Amino acid sequence: MDWVEIFLIFSALIVLLFSGIRVAFALGTTAFLLLLLADPGKIRGFGVLMWGVANSYVLCAIPLFILMAELFSQAGMADRTYSALSPVVGRIKGGLLHSNIVSCAFFAAISGSSVATAATITTTAYPELTKRKYDPKILLGSLAAGGTLGILIPPSINLLIYGDIVGESVGKLFIAGFLPGILLASLFMGYIYLVGWSHPEKMPLAEKLPWRTRLAGLKNVIPVAACMLILLVGLYKGFATATELAALGVLIAFITGLSFRTLTIKKVEEALISTLKTTCMILFILIAGSLLSNALAAVGLIKQISTWVLGLGVSKWSLLIAIYIFYIILGCLLDGISMMVLSLPVVHPIITGAGFDSIWFGIILVVLTEVGLITPPVGMNLYVLQGVTGKDLWFVSQGAFPFVMIMILSLVIYTLFPEIALWLPRQMK
How many CA atoms lie within 13 A of 395 on its CB side? Predict the structure, then answer.
């Protein structure tokens, strides 16, 4: 294909994406048009490709992890986790804003979704902290940023999809996300501490309670902590696959809901329906993205672009910075899963061809996706906070901006010290 045809095809994709139709249909239509122009005979293989994607064993973990998160949520574990952690960290400079980050980190470990984490913790935390006169901007910023931990701390739906697209071990990717997730949460809390120290009026401390009282509520966190520990140890030691551990997580979530007497038949039904809707959305995007990537490969476009980029003669670090900028801009326009499905067939060969580690780049890509989640105009976490709190999008974006800068700082740290992401996976058998 010549560059004029390439330009026309990608222009058509952009027009379709901004027309308001579903992302999956935009990707699938572009794939069809591409092969129609280049090699119509290969359109006959679309059915086989679609079945191949939907029949993936790795992707079985997606509905299971989503169902696990839905059951925990319906069982009221987000409220219990927040209530248990608030007395423990609420006396640190920054007050209960630390609870937002810690609770998001815990809930992220059973959710795998940033949007679900942000929505659930915001519903619990925002009314309480508003009554306590916390500064609304940094309050909303902490909730938006804390929610992004849902796709970095394992299990992560985004890392699972990344592993499926590029053929990496999902277990190693999950383990690789643990230390970067903890570091990012610590950076968020460090910023909150500094603001709390310099402007204590913006975030009053929680009431002082005896340590026995503060620790008493931690028993409510045990199911979440146990589930998180089982997942991490199981993946690290190789006792089970991600899909098997996801099934075990569903069982733990179900038993937890029954033991707390908070999980009713109606709530189980709601969890199942929500799981079905989310899973269908993700799978449609993955199937359509697979059709497009196969169409691009069939006409030689992926190889053509990769060869051209690698032949530019720029240093690998200049190339990496360009890719960072590309993803930050793309993240302002597309949701994380669509962004990965659309770009990875082209970007991943360039990254690995330049000598960068594939697992490390998976973590980097997730952090870049997190940046997109709290930057307008398509920052999903911003819209969630806007919907829950009633604040306008610009106000929420202002609160999230310092945390965007912290994420970019974390990217610099992970780039300079890749072992933060790679050390744990290299210890796995």
Answer: 12
